[in-house]
Specification:
Length: 350
């Protein structure tokens, strides 16, 4: 069976014919080696450096990577079928400088964390579970020697930050020295291995191709449809006849309804309130939402990091936004179906 060496991380015997990208993805946690084009050999996000083996690059690799990158050993992992021994270096898996900490100490801290720390409260973009801590514990030596995924260090950083607070280190049963100063040094070492803040996403040319192709087909489709079907227009307006009620198009009928139910307050007429002030406040609120979000999610303990991307990480913001969109939809439905002559209430099915 061919042997695959992921530099600084793993050595595996795999079945001949295994796809290298799939293999690497299976070996990683949440943050998989990205494959933007879905393994078509067109995007280069799955590139790895092949130090040994791998066969000859195919045409896709030549087109996407070019000679210079190929000469440096870069290959598209999605295009490599493993048939012989291969040694690769995966971005994020690079061997970094060794960290001088006793592996036993890290294991003791992880064991304590698995038992005593409320893991959901740890500020991290990673999913931290007991299983994951145990896995890290089993790989401590290789992590400290310079292997490991930056995401692994995000977990370690979160755990050590937690025990560094409120002198929790004293509670940890360990034979190794564990002072607050030492925790600070460990955190500094881990911080160097955290994931890069910004990730570069290549949009040109592949994403743009897709976007323009969609734009083209959409425009062509609408053009053909509008030639084949007549627009649903009413008969020409006559000055002697004003329809009652005269409703705005559906996307504005919500504002028309808002206008109708708004009261006059002081110098502001219902028209000013429903037609200008409330819609303006609504739009300003949406613009400001990303900036005021940290204050809305007041329940979060660690406000130094932005909340996660999942809905459950942003319940207040999500609820507020849903409420506002829901209110807009209700206004549109009322204005469209439940208003009749003089803008009085009607039952649409009667
Ligand atoms: S996944 Fe896009 S090139 Fe491999």
């Amino acid at each position: 069976m061919p042997k695959v060496v992921i530099l600084g991380q793993k050595e595996l015997d795999v079945r001949p014919g295994t796809n290298l990208l799939k293999l690497i993805q299976e070996q990683r946690y949440d943050d998989q080696l990205p494959a933007t084009c879905g393994g078509q050999g067109q995007c280069s996000t799955c590139a790895v450096r092949v130090l040994k083996g791998g066969g000859d690059p195919n045409q896709n690799e030549k087109d996407v990577l070019g000679e210079e990158q190929l000469a440096k050993g870069w290959r598209l992992s999605c295009q490599i079928t493993i048939t012989q021994d291969i040694e690769v270096e995966v971005p994020g898996y690079e061997v970094a400088e060794a960290i001088q900490i006793e592996p036993g100490l890290v294991r003791d801290v992880l064991a304590y964390a698995a038992e005593k720390i409320p893991l959901r409260e740890l500020p991290s973009t990673q999913k931290i579970t007991v299983k994951r801590l145990k896995d890290l514990s089993s790989r401590t030596e290789s992590l400290l020697e310079g292997g490991g995924d930056p995401n692994d260090f995000e977990v370690l950083y979160a755990v050590f930050s937690y025990i560094g607070r409120d002198h929790k280190a004293r509670e940890i049963p360990t034979q190794f020295e564990l002072t607050d100063e030492k925790i600070q040094k460990i955190l500094e070492a881990f911080a160097k291995r955290l994931p890069a803040e910004e990730e570069e996403i290549i949009t040109y040319p592949y994403f743009l191709y897709v976007a323009f192709a969609l734009l083209f087909f959409l425009t062509a489709g609408l053009g053909i449809y509008s030639v084949l079907r007549d627009a649903p227009l009413e008969e020409p307006a006559t000055p002697s006849f004003t329809p009652n009620p005269e409703k705005a198009p559906w996307y504005f009928v919500g504002i028309q309804e808002l206008l109708a139910i708004s009261p006059n307050i002081g110098p502001f007429t219902s028209v000013a309130i429903g037609g200008v002030i409330v819609p303006t406040l609504f739009i300003l609120f949406l613009i400001a939402l990303p900036y005021i979000e940290p204050y809305l999610e007041f329940w979060r303990k660690d406000k130094s990091k932005p909340p996660g991307r999942r809905l459950r990480d942003r319940p207040v913001t999500t609820a507020l936004f849903t409420l506002m969109v829901g209110a807009a939809v209700v206004l549109i439905i009322i204005g469209q179906y439940f208003r009749g002559p003089q803008w009085e209430w009607v039952i649409p099915w009667k």
